[in-house]
Structure of Peptide chain release factor 3:
Amino acid sequence: MTSPRRTFAIISHPDAGKTTLTEKLLYFGGAIHLAGEVKARGANRRARSDWMKIEQQRGISVTSSVMTFESGGVTFNLLDTPGHEDFSEDTYRTLTAVDSAIMVIDAARGIEAQTRKLFEVCRLRSVPIITFVNKVDREGRPTFELLDEIADMLALDVCPMTWPVGMGGTFEGILNLDTNRIARPEGDSRTFQGKVEDAPTLPAEIAEEIELAQAGYAAFDAEAYRNGDLTPVYFGSALKDFGPADLIAALSDYAPPPRPQPAEPAPVAPEEKEVTGFVFKVQANMDPQHRDRIAFMRLCSGTFKRGMKLTPTGHGKPIAVHSPILFFAQNREVADEAYPGDIIGIPNHGTLRVGDTLSEKADVRFTGLPNFAPEILRRVALKDPTKTKQLRKALDDMAEEGVTQVFYPEIGSNWIIGVVGQLQLDVLLSRLDAEYKVAAGLEPAPFDTARWVSAEDPAELKNFTDLNRAAMAKDRDGNPVFLAKSAWEVGYVQDRYPRVKFAATRER
């Protein structure tokens, strides 16, 4: 019998403690035996989801990682996403591959800008959310204030499942409101070391808070949670080990198993026998010594078996998947079987791309993985002209991954790259140097944004492109792109050419 699957992402604003929580979930789930801090060294580094050089230097996640672990008979597929808004495209695509999410909030800061943006993406896809209010061992905002902010800003019912007994210097543990048992901090580090006891008589102030909370907030309703109308809220400290075990139990008990996925001609249910899946991420050079290229595929239906042939929508030729991979950060193992909800890695040499559907019969296409119009455009200046070929390969690789978009102007030889955020440019230059040994710089481009152009009448499109050749380019798939100097120019040109469609997104 197939073990239940829970495929989930962790979303947060930068520095809310997402990477630390990821490690502790793996630790409490039994996947690792040593949980390290964000800038750990030596053996601890293997316990971390941040493996790129730039991630280790800056202490932030800039790429999505996939980690699988088992606990209590349930297989968990954890997708760690970049918290920084400059990597929102990667995060958006990752959220297409999950069935639920944990939203991490800093107890002192509450809901921050990026948290809200990521939540809206979850809402668009009806992804149910469990909220974890982190860092209650430090001074933070009042508990009611945090709960009310979640309810008001996100328009959600909130249901506190645990309650902090004190905060910061007065922190005395986490009370489980269902069992009425309290997890206590112990030792010099004031961490959770497994000491759980029946809640004694609580201070009058805390007892009154809990009574008000239980009367004033919604009772837990599993159906409302799975519909995305209610969020259960857990309090804790990932660093001090308060909360991760509660979250694993909540995911196991409440989070939905694999759900139907949007597709054409019809949604695909996990119970269907035909094996189907879609590629939501491509990552090159996870092992730079082997120049590897891994496509991350979310399995949507059927039972996948090693060696079976699947047909990608990209080119229609079946490929045999001989070495499918299950991930634990950089550690891997070959998967002989996989089930709906699982994330498997497929080694390939550029045949698979983000947005590709893979299926046994090639009669289905998953939808909802768009490219987004870049907000920053730059020209690439090569410092060594003899490395043009290597630069082209590197830019194509990273465009496949979604790190950047590449545009080839109709006039002029300087390629233009487009990104959503400034930090993506830093990642691009870092990876060009570290992984491809290509030294390059970036120069201002005479354009500010890009739009994909199309028209029902090919003659209309040709007329537009001929008259605006100086502003036209092709993306890496050969699609026509209009490069604009400003958002105002986009509006002006749209008014002049009403029969031409200017798209800020393009379905992959």
